[in-house]
Amino acid sequence: MRVGIIGVGCSKFGVRDDVTLQELAFEAVKEAIEDAGISKEDIEMSVVGTAGTRSYELMPAVPINEYCGFTGKGPIRVEAACATGSAAVYTAYSTIKSGIADVVIAIGVEKMNEVDTPTSLAVGGRSGSYLWEFHQYGTTFPGYYAMHASAHMARYGTTEKQLAMVAVKNHRNAAKNPKAQFQKEITLEKALSSRYVAYPLRLFDCSAITDGSAAAILASEEKIKELGLKDQAVWIEGIGYSSDTANLSKRIDYVGLKATVEASRMAYKMAKIDDPVKQLDVAALHDCFTIAEIMAYEDLGFCKKGEGGKFIENGDSDFGGKIPVNTFGGLKAKGHPLGATGVGMVYEIVKQLRGEAGELQVDLKNYKGLTHNIGGTGHFGWVFILGV
Amino acid sequence: MESRTFILKHKLPIARVEKYWKGLEEGKVYGTVCKICGAKYYPPQVDCSKCYNSEVEWVEISGEGTIECFTQLHSFPQGFEFVGRPYTIAIAKFGDFKVMGWYEGDIPKVGEKVKIKTGKDETGVWKVYFEPWGELNEHRL
Fold first, then answer.
1. ∠ CA(A241), CA(A247), CA(A252), 5° rounding?
2. What per-residue confidence (pLDDT) applies to B140?
3. Which of helix, strand or coil describes residue A144?
4. Chain A within 8 Å of B136 (Cβ-Cβ)?
5. Average pLDDT score over residue span B35-62
């Protein structure tokens, strides 16, 4: 029995101090229900993905569920750091696969701007292995990825310019996405002259602190037929997941993320993908930092290990290249509201595969796309293959 | 408007790895090795995640380490404002153990050799520091 996505929604990303967490979730949920063309009552179970901690609502699943009118139908609250959204979609998928429910909504939402930047940096740094990392050394998330950048640059000669090219591409795409946090292009010079946040990563190598929500409604194939929604369904053809150690000192190396390699291997096997660049039309990759997108090209097999810098430089991940990556602006420029990010990636690929991406539409040949969502620095890894 | 103030301060149960924290005060950095299967742990732990036994030997990590990766932080998290200047975090490899520490210097190089030492910061928290090897760094990898 296949599971398909029948409706998606996404709020405007950015600093959303105009709404509460509940109100923000509602925006995406409403759009997803309207997009599916079903009634709210058709939804049998809700999954709420939110990493939390930065929001005043400490156990937010029930308040969100209540506000969205799903009282009594869940919620299952999931958390997988920055990959929380993918864990929510997976939970919705599994609930349907198990036969417990036929129509499930995955809601991803995060409000990260309710606390100040030093607090937000501390939450990120505390999300590794607190006692052995943050407590002693004051780690931050930009710092964790910067450590990977230092290793990647030393081993493969990856340059600051190549990192900046990822930011330039993703900002260029976000400029055409009305829901993006930063709807403006940046120049290479601007990126390369911005201040260091965590050497060797500069301000424009980092995703910002974002509020946002996204929702996806999943249903069983039988139910999709019954509802007459077969033409709009996008199928989940592959799912892969993995994880790595909390302590970075226990990793084998720092030039890639093993969780990405393992998750993609699993998803490719399930979806029968041998050559991702040839068989996929579009990909949404986890570019919380520019180095993350470069490592993802390699770890997902879009290019050989160490050639990620060249991949961006050659335009291989741009429109018209080998595989357009982060067509909606990526985490870097569209924004990275932790709980919403993974669901937002699904939103993006669904829009692309349905040919509804407007100015940002890719050419569809295989009608297959990929989402790659990392929690932490490879602490969680999720890969989905979607297709029609 | 603003929420009511909410302070979170946690107690850290370190009883089972007390030797590590005492070691730092004596200038020593300890890892653990499982007596049954030989698995090595840094940070130290007294339960073996591999073979599920809880008999470990404490071993001192010393000698020459090699920096595998590093960062210098310019945006500080809440709790580290006291440092007042960019600080450098590195992971260095000492034989079978990899250790995180604060690098005493500006920007290190991957492959650079370092000595391990301990110390406490202005807030009284003990930690590992890496000291450049000086002349030996002429032979950076």
1. 70
2. 41
3. helix
4. no
5. 98
Q: Is B116 helix (H, G, I), strand (E, B) or coil?
A: strand
Of A112, A365, A384, A352, residue with least CA distance to A268: A384
- The model's pLDDT over B78-125, given as tens digits with 9 standing for 90+, comes to 999 999 999 999 999 999 999 999 999 989 999 999 999 999 999 999
Q: Is A303 a catalytic residue?
A: no
Sorted by where each begins, the domain ranges of chain B are 14-61, 63-134
Q: Name A230's Cβ contacts closer than 8 Å, sequence gap at least 6.
A: A224
Judge whether A336 counts as a catalytic residue: yes
Q: What is the interface size between A and B, counted as CB pairs within 8 Å?
A: 120
CA distances from B67 to A129, A310, A338, A370, B116 (A): 20, 26, 31, 35, 11
Interface residue of A131, A137, A209, A254 to substitute, partner B, most B CBs within 10 Å: A137
Task: Tell whether pTM > 0.90.
Answer: yes
Distance from the Cα of A248 to chain B's closest Cα (Å) equals 8
Contact B98 A150 (CB under 8 A): no
How many Å apart are CA B93 and CA A183, to the nearest integer? 43
In B, minimum Cα distance to A120 occurs at B77
Backbone angles phi, psi at A348, to 5 degrees: -60, -45
Residues in chain A with CB shorter than 8 Å from the CB of B99 are: 249
Inter-CA distances, A264 with A26, A87, A128, A159, A300, Å: 32, 15, 23, 26, 6
SS3 A120: helix
Q: Residue A216's Cα: distance from chain center in Å?
A: 13
Element (H, E) at A10: strand A3-10
Reported ipTM: 0.95
Handedness of CA B59, B64, B67, B72 (dihedral sign): positive
Contact (CB<8Å) B73/A142: yes
Q: What is the DSSP string of A279-313?
A: H-SEEE---SBHHHHHHHHHHTTSS-TT-HHHHHH
The span from the CA of A339 to the CA of A328, in Å, is 18
- Domains of chain A and any CATH numbers: 4-115+209-232 (3.40.47.10)
- Closest listed residue to residue B77, CA positions, set A79, A198, A50, A113: A198
Take residue A252 and report the two structure tokens written for it.
């084998």
